[in-house]
Amino acid sequence: MSDRSARFRFYAELNDFLPPAQRRQDIEYRFRDAPGIKDPIEALGVPHSEVELIVVNGESVGFDYRLRDGDRVAVYPVFESIDVSNAVRLREAPLRHTAFILDVNLGKLARRLRMLGFDALYRNDYDDEEIVALSVETGRIILTRDRRLLYPKVVTHGYWLRATDVDEQVREVIDRLDLSECIRPFARCLDCNGKIKAVNKSEILDRLEPLTRKYYDEFYRCSACGKIYWEGSHYEHMRALVARYADD
């Protein structure tokens, strides 16, 4: 069968995945037979989990659409503030369950997200297969610097971080997923992601250093690993970080 062609156009931050010469312009894609539209989108470099809406010849379609000769395809990123409920949904649920799983390179980001109260699962010995499986099983959004981690078909919710600095990464996650109203600081353990709850001082006296026992009365304990927290000298620095992220 002779070669066929379609024209693709990617919008907004989906252009980050493209070579500079292909950004913000039509891209000709040549093909044979009738591939599912997910395949050419990823062949051009964009993970399917970053896509919310596909419009072919003016009509929204799903990933099961078979590409045809002469098609004009517009591909849009995951929307958080725009109502696309009347379009064909590409996943069963929107990107709104704000529980994360992070790849092994994002340990600092995991701690910052936990500090802000977000459920952020992380271990430095996860392999890619474990991350994908846990994302699917628990409905977690994959955060990664490796776009290949978002290519498996079973991945529905994921985000490729553009920034490399941890502060910029925090801002990127909050802004991109519209989470500024969801910040609940100091609700999770920085070490294990467990929930933190107030604990009576008398219950943990034997675990406190003498000066801590003398000068502090309010304490919190992780319900998972048992780590003790109090508003010591480090607390003001953490409060300043939280305020900065919330105000940006």
How does the SSE layout of this entry go?
Layout: E1 4-10, E2 27-31, H1 38-43, E3 51-56, E4 59-61, E5 72-77, E6 99-102, H2 107-115, E7 119-121, H3 128-138, E8 141-144, E9 158-160, H4 166-176, E10 196-199, H5 201-204, H6 210-215, E11 219-222, E12 228-230, H7 233-247
Parallel strand pairs: 1-5, 6-7, 6-8, 8-9
Antiparallel strand pairs: 1-2, 3-4, 3-5, 10-11, 11-12
Give the beta-strand count: 12
Helix content: 25-40%
Spatial strand order of the main sheet: 2-1-5-3-4
User: Which regions are unreliable across 5 or more consecutive residues at pLDDT < 50?
Assistant: none
Q: Main β-sheet, in a few words?
A: 5 strands, mixed
**SSE topology string:** EEHEEEEHEHEEHEHHEEH
Distance between the termini: 54 Å
Mean pLDDT: 90
The number of helical segments is 7
Structural class: alpha/beta
Dominant shape = elongated
Give the count of structural domains.
3
- Strand fraction band? 15-25%
- What radius of gyration results from the CA coordinates? 22 Å
Structural notes for this entry:
With 248 residues, the chain is of the alpha/beta class. It has three domains: 4-77, Beta-grasp domain (Ubiquitin-like (UB roll)); 99-182; 196-234, no CATH class. 25% of the residues lie in helices and 21% in strands. It is built from seven helices and twelve strands. The protein has helices at 38-43, 107-115, 128-138, 166-176, 201-204, 210-215, 233-247, and strands at 4-10, 27-31, 51-56, 59-61, 72-77, 99-102, 119-121, 141-144, 158-160, 196-199, 219-222, 228-230. The strands form three sheets. Strands 2-1-5-3-4 form a five-stranded mixed beta sheet, with no helix packed on it. Strands 7-6-8-9 form a four-stranded parallel beta sheet, with helices on both faces. A hairpin with a 5-residue loop joins β11 (219-222) and β12. α2 (107-115) crosses α4. The longest helix has 15 residues, at 233-247. It is elongated. The model has no long low-confidence stretch (mean pLDDT 90).
